[in-house]
Batch of 2 targets.
Target 1
Amino acid sequence: MQGDVREHLSALEECGASTIRVRRVDELDRCDGLVLPGGESTTIDKLTRTFGLRDPLRARIADGLPVYGSCAGMILLADRILDGPRDQQTLGGLDITVRRNAFGRQVDSFEADLTVTGIAGAPMRAVFIRAPWVEQAGPEVEVLASVETRGSEHPVVVRQGGLLATSFHPEVTGDHRVHALFVDMVRAAVS
Amino acid sequence: MAENTPDTPIEHGSSRVKRGMAEMLKGGVIMDVVTADQAKIAEDAGAVAVMALERVPADIRAQGGVSRMSDPDMIDGIIEAVSIPVMAKARIGHFVEAQVLQSLGVDYIDESEVLTPADYSNHIDKWAFTVPFVCGATNLGEALRRITEGAAMIRSKGEAGTGDVSNATTHMRELRSAISKLTSMAEDELYVAAKELQAPYDLVKEVAKTGKLPVVLFTAGGIATPADAAMMMQLGAEGVFVGSGVFKSGNPAQRAKAIVEATTFHDDPDTIARVSRGLGEAMVGINVDEPARSIQFAQRGW
């Protein structure tokens, strides 16, 4: 609907997936997996409601559709949200409480090396842009990476079944290991 | 703010962080607002960001005088009022206004021809800042010069405050056709192309290879209707700035929402038709040829 869709599409294609943009229900119906991109979560929330995509999305997620959300996408996948406007809704599915703009404003945005459990090789360069973090995660949620800020650890990569979320934007760095992991998750779900 | 730990060297204000911020705004609408209430209306309508300024371009045009950075109290009020990114304008070349805006915590600075230029030779050295900058351009050479100075996002200039979309169209077509011309050039022709564009060779070569600017390209200046926004998207803009077009119209909340929706579904005439119904009066507007030459904003910047 809005955000860095093109970057996600090219990262997924480099991982061997075939891709379409989803703005309508019939496009959603053709997908075996879905990426909720980086963008403005309040805008994406409003557009999915206005154009009747919210309920079909929730139904597919409940039905086990694998979904990966980066940044705004993490917010949309969270069951609970802090620091959003009062009327902001999420699609839900991930049993987490997410805090919007948790690291601060754009001047506080940063990149850092991050080791993610389940992703082999050197640490990845993670780009955090007005990023959220996970404030609280339910028992079913695996925390795959955290960032330490002011002495406390905040989860920034989480997975629960077929749902994967990162606070940062692997789609802007050219390191497609997170997308490869997600493509594997989709392949496993389909077969 | 994130702190450095031995295994995570942290970098603020890198090109990826600055340009990446603009990537997240793509497909969205950024709206000019002059009060916290207007900012709330913009956020409720689905804007991806707001631009805080003292007067919208139509009023700057009507009232004349020197136009400057907004009052810090007013910017604070808008930052407090909304959760979406807040941008603000500094005068061309006024690096201290930019320093002040960075200290206020705005998310993006627009070094804008809509304000009165503070320096008629130099633009701001934008590499010196952690906060990212967006700059206007009327053609490819101008866009590449701004990127050389550190701009992390470009918008076509159009003619702000007129409600006349014709200049935005001209600038967007000019940018796109210059880019496509570069992509079809032989490699040995790019040296002369760089000279003619008055832009660095490396940047020209990169555009020739990728067929796009290395930063996000939005449109601005004169967009007043959902169809205007959709046309600019079809012409290759990656998103839309709306200045006077929303809050100088009869029904700002509904028009703002309609422009957001038409931007998302810019290639779907049925949706554009539906959201264009019942919006009331568009801003009256003035023809781009009407403003005296001295206040044609697009001529500012070089």
Target 2
Amino acid sequence: MTPEEHFEDYVARDLKIEAKDWMPERYRRTLIRQISQHAHSEIVGMLPEANWISRAPSLKRKAILLAKVQDEAGHGLYLYSAAETLGVSRDTLLEELHSGKAKYSSIFNYPTLTWADVGAIGWLVDGAAIMNQVPLCKCSYGPYARAMTRVCKEESFHQRQGFQIMLTLAQGTAAQKDMAQDALNRWWWPSLMMFGPTDAESPNSAESMRWRIKRFSNDELRQRFVDMTVPQAELIGLTLPDADLKWNASTGHYDFGAIDWAEFQQVISGHGPCNRERLETRKQAHAEGAWVRDAARAHAEKRRAAAARSAA
Amino acid sequence: MSASAEWPLWEVFIRSRQGLSHRHVGSLHAPDAEMALSHARDVYTRRQEGTSIWVVPAAAIAASSPDEKDILFDPSDDKVYRHPTFYDLPDEVRNM
């Protein structure tokens, strides 16, 4: 069997491709793009929530949010590591993020205005992420699939803590309930956009499906997310901001209103409410950490040299 | 000092509980073994996943190549007599 046949055969039989196996160049490039975008989203995703760590309403909420934001850093690490197995360096990936060449999920370009936004992010944004990510645990590329398995295991706490924040607010005073509703109003549509363009507008999807990188179409996953979330919103007495949302008995799914794709394009092309701020914050954090990275390396080198001297 | 050189890559192995062997869980960058252990603890054992950690410089691992897969592993395909099920024994034989 030629390497190419081996690859096609493995993918077709749902077996995993590992880092050193032969793979088509486009498969490698698609994975590097997808995994690195995913990694970038994890670490940029830390920023909107980190804004609320110091203002969380109780010590318990603060500890939970801290743990969640720490998890996101870990998820970024698992994913960068998976991308690196494809032969790209961490520094290159970070450079692409910082120069604006690489994308991250556009959802993180929206601001977190109130504490309820932390709840809405956990419930909706992490909920949508889980919907996208669970199928990736079965992706044809072994290191990505294994990273996603770890991510998904940790992610479900994120969604539950967010929903619980919303539940608590919805059961609170009128002002608290309003705050929860306001957050839901602002995060609902961007969450639906997280599944990406409609199938008709998603040209690379067919290839990714054939390579078993992707297993469900954007529209399929979006529909599942809507079907899952509507009853959850009803349960806590909040209203999804969509006048066209209604149960369709003939399809067995909820129909929902038109997504504002112009807004999506605008945010993705760098003109969302917080694009500039997020990227600046990220670059600043990286630049301000440079002395730590340098000092740790210098310390390690000094100790290696000392060990070599004492051995001589 | 230039920050251009990345910290080296380490592979991380975790023993999830006493009695089990260490298992590969992922990798990370660190300047030395001590920091690699500390990072591994922070990212790979936040939920009681481990009782022991190994970190190994990725550059120190010698690996077989996928190209050699046939040469290395095919020979065992025709040695079914290495498996107990190869041997037909009378039903009367017990405890074997």
